[in-house]
Write a structure and sequence with these properties.
Blueprint (H helix, E strand, L loop, with lengths): L5 H12 L14 H8 L14 E5 L3 H20 L3 H8 L11 E8 L16 H19 L3 E5 L4 H8 L5 E10 L9 H4 L15
Antiparallel strand pairs: 1-2, 2-4, 3-4
Helix pairs in contact: 2-5, 3-6
The structure holds flavin mononucleotide (FMN).
The site of flavin mononucleotide has 11 residues, from strand 3.
């Protein structure tokens, strides 16, 4: 099918409006086939030079989960110290990960050393490989949401420590730690906006040159 209906476009827009970064999960499991259907969308994503540099690590064992959670708690405590008193109070009340509850946790890496793609497009800007991984994550995120699943992106982590704990190759760069599961609630408003941390801009600013 090469044509998409206006109803589909409306639905797609609604999907983007209701996507949300989720940090509050129910603990019931996610069906493996459903998770796989979401993960399959990685391979549909654009990538620089067709390098497909994404690498997915399922963080399943108690040992790995405990290490990741400890990593987050340490980084979060450090981040808290960086804010002045009013912001620190607000920050301390934010829930910034669902790592204690979410049934599925994925560390998404970029393989910086991949030979795939033969360097095309990444010569002057090797960071394009990481951007390719971000694009793939976005597809995964939207697909998961279309099934009613929530995804939460955690970046408050020491990536070098996580690499060691998950025993991944040194030239894999952490792009995202994703918590996946059934959300406790759905909303059209980002949680950080609800909490008074930051608002969405009312319009996209576009420059002309
Ligand atoms: C690259 C990236 C890193 C993020 N890291 C975190 C994080 O560590 N903790 C968190 O609670 N949310 C994190 N988020 C989610 C953002 O806070 C969220 O996307 C933003 O507030 C807008 O809300 P929405 O995604 O529900 O629209 C991250 C999002 C992105 C794209």
């Amino acid at each position: 099918m090469t044509k998409f209906s206006s109803e589909f476009r409306d639905d797609l827009h609604r999907l983007m409006r209701w996507r949300r970064d989720v940090r509050r999960f129910r603990t019931d499991p996610v069906d493996e086939a459903l998770l796989q259907a979401c993960l399959d969308t990685f391979q549909l994503a654009p990538s620089v030079g067709l390098s497909e540099p994404w690498r997915v690590v399922r963080v399943d064992s108690d040992h790995a989960r405990t290490a990741a959670l400890r990593n987050y708690e340490t980084a979060n405590a450090k981040a808290l110290k960086g804010y002045g008193s009013d912001r620190a109070k607000l920050y301390a009340n934010l829930k910034l990960s669902g790592m204690k509850e979410s049934p599925v946790q994925l560390a998404i890496y970029c393989d910086e050393a991949t030979a795939k793609g033969r360097g095309l497009g990444a010569g002057t800007m090797p960071e394009m490989r990481r951007y390719s991984v971000v694009g793939a994550i976005t597809q995964f995120w939207l697909t998961a949401r279309s099934f009613g699943l929530g995804v939460g992106w955690v970046s408050i982590l020491d990536p070098a420590q996580l690499n060691r704990d998950l025993k991944v190759p040194e030239d894999w760069a952490l792009v995202a730690y994703l918590c996946v599961g059934w959300p406790e609630e759905l909303s059209e408003t980002p949680e950080l906006a609800k909490a008074g941390w930051e608002d969405r801009d009312s319009a996209l600013s576009i420059l002309s040159r």
